[in-house]
Amino acid sequence: MENVHILTQRVSGRGDFLPFSAEHTRVDEPTETHELVTELQTSLVIEDVLAMYAKFAKQLLNFSGIQFQSTLGTAQTSDSDTNNTPYIFDLTIAAEHLGQLIYFSKYPLSAVIEKKLRVLHTALIYPLRNAMMYSRVLKLATKDTLTGLNNRSQFNDILSQKLENCRRYQRPFSLMLLDLDNFKQVNDNFGHKVGDDTLKEFAKVLCSSIRGTDSVFRFGGDEFSILIEDPEFTTNKVVAERIMRLVRESSLMSQYDVTTSIGFTLASSQDCDNEIFARADKGLYKAKASGRNCAKAY
């Protein structure tokens, strides 16, 4: 546990002020640390681990917020106020740098508090590392590695959830299927590196064409889909036209004469997964049969 290194910037002031009698707390006692470890091991969600840890750390420092920054991004407790002074602690296990734990507080830290926080960090680092590993595995299981979009497995799960909500709460939605016209020729004539760049460019086009409530997926190859939170053909047409316009405006996709064909359909409370997918697929087939580079409803 001695391999945990903490770098803290002290706040200058007239002596060390403690918001309450933290010197007399017993959080560094073995029983208290064991209790913290036991609770932290009950979740593999980084935000949950931070929330549980924050309850114990509040006994030492009256902070307004707590963050953990790592290669996975920034996580923080739901009630965090980050407007106060940040106190940054580097957390490492042996040669592995987990990230930075940041407390935000208007109170300066005394040497006594820093020492007690060090003890709490030794209880935090392993549950936190486990949560980070779980997050990475979960991302690999649900994300397409090339484009960063949700994958087919995630699509199946979210589609089932949306159909259930449609049946229970009358929340209809739309399904759009897309693929790239002339993509095979790009791979055959210019190589897979250019093909991969084209797929990543198209993924950016899709993400910039939807709203925050919609979801984009890559099934594999040049096959993509979008779940749209709107049961209107008009909305689908607007999204489809926006996608086709951005594809035309893309210098990369125009260079290789790549366009997109789109099929879409509206969900109903009587649908099952296969039925709504089959209708959208028929719409895509209609777009292909109509000369490609167009969108068709079914």
Task: Sum this structure up briefly.
This protein has 298 residues and is α+β, with helices and mostly antiparallel strands. The protein contains nine helices and nine strands. This is diguanylate cyclase.
Detailed description of the structure:
The protein is of the alpha+beta class. Helix content is 46%, strand content 20%. The protein has two domains: 22-142, GAF domain (Beta-Lactamase); 152-297, Reverse transcriptase/Diguanylate cyclase domain (Alpha-Beta Plaits), CATH 3.30.70. A five-stranded mixed sheet has the order 6-7-5-8-9, with helices on both faces. Strands 2-1-4-3 form a four-stranded antiparallel sheet, covered by helices on one side. β3 (85-93) and β4 form a beta hairpin. The chain is elongated and about 75 Å long.
Keyword list:
single chain, 298 residues, alpha+beta, Beta-Lactamase, Alpha-Beta Plaits, 2 domains, 5-stranded mixed β-sheet, 4-stranded antiparallel β-sheet, 9 helices, 9 strands, 20% strand, elongated, disordered N terminus, diguanylate cyclase, Rev_trsase/Diguanyl_cyclase
The top level CATH class name of the largest domain: Alpha Beta
Summed over residues and divided by their number, the pLDDT gives a mean of 88
**What share of the residues lie within helices?**
40-55%
From the helix content, strand content and strand pairing, which structural class follows?
alpha+beta
The CATH topology assignment of the largest domain is Alpha-Beta Plaits
The portion of residues forming beta strands comes to 15-25%
Q: Helix tally?
A: 9
User: For the record, what is the CATH homologous superfamily label of the largest domain?
Assistant: Reverse transcriptase/Diguanylate cyclase domain
The coarse silhouette is elongated
Count of domains: 2
Provide the gyration radius in Å. Answer: 26 Å
* Gap between N and C termini: 62 Å
CATH A-level architecture of the largest domain? 2-Layer Sandwich
Low-pLDDT ranges: 1-28
How many runs of DSSP E, i.e. beta strands? 9
- Could you state the order of secondary-structure elements as H and E? HHEEEEHHEHHEEHHEHE
Strand order of the largest sheet: 6-7-5-8-9
Major pleated sheet = 5 strands, mixed
InterPro entries: Diguanylate_Cyclase, GGDEF_dom, Nucleotide_cyclase, Rev_trsase/Diguanyl_cyclase
Protein name: diguanylate cyclase
Organism: Pseudoalteromonas fuliginea
Domain GGDEF: 171-298
